[in-house]
Amino acid sequence: MNILYISISGNTRGFVKKLAAFATEQHEKDASLPLVHLKEIHENSDFEKETKPFFVFVPTYLEGGNGIDSGDQEILTETMREYLEYQENHALCLGVVGSGNKNFNYQYCLTAKQYAEQFGFPMVEDYELRGTPTDVERIYHALVQRYRA
């Protein structure tokens, strides 16, 4: 199961690494459960045509405002949007998982919501900041269910 992600502060990177470790543990118990393969996208990434289905993980960084009528402009994660646009990579995306800070109310996971709307794939799950072990387990199982569908 392939995961593309972008990480600015390290929270998303830390979460997907925990997710990959959890997947390995689950796969060792039940070989029918998929392993997780990670690919970080950043501003220096060489863009390439994706050939296998994947999920996207994005944090939320917005330019000020309240996320409703002002300040819903994505910043810092734009490279992932460009990667998804590159040679129609978004067509292989099975869904997006967003992270954010619940203190920001409507802006919580707004980047993931915007990706889902723009590209037409579902927002599969969300988690706050670095996530918890419960989030890792919940999100892994949600991804597996969608991956197998």
TrEMBL record:
This is NrdI protein. InterPro entries: Flavodoxin/NO_synth, Flavoprotein-like_sf, RNR_NrdI. Residues 1-149 form the Flavodoxin-like domain. SUPFAM superfamilies: Flavoproteins. PANTHER family: PROTEIN NRDI. It comes from Enterococcus mundtii. It comes from the Bacteria. Coiled coil: none annotated. GO terms for molecular function: FMN binding; oxidoreductase activity, acting on NAD(P)H. The gene is nrdI. PROSITE patterns: FLAVODOXIN_LIKE (PS50902).
